[in-house]
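Kindly inspect this chain:
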Amino acid sequence: MFSCTVTADPGHVVVKLSGDLIVEHSREIHAELLTCLSRENAMTIDLGESARIDLSFVQILSALLKCPDRNVRIANLPLHVTDTAGVLGAGDIIRELSTRTEDNA
């Protein structure tokens, strides 16, 4: 199961991703994040209610790092995300996104 809730303030979008952030939902996750980024330059991805991730989600996050004109960060980072990213060799990607703020992104 997967769900996405978007809330927007002027200049900033919060995308709350819940459930399984895995390959079966990767197209939908990718499309939702791209849609949000097309509207605003600043986006926070709230992972507090995520259940699990896989390589496809890590790849989506990696692609977001390659958007230098966008301010993308992660909030409410659960331990399972950092653990899985570490096993996949992508711990640096998660740390980069989770330490960003609007001032230093």
Notes: DSSP finds four helices and five strands in the chain. The helical segments are 26-39, 55-65, 79-87, 91-99. The chain has a mean pLDDT of 88. The chain has one domain: 2-99.
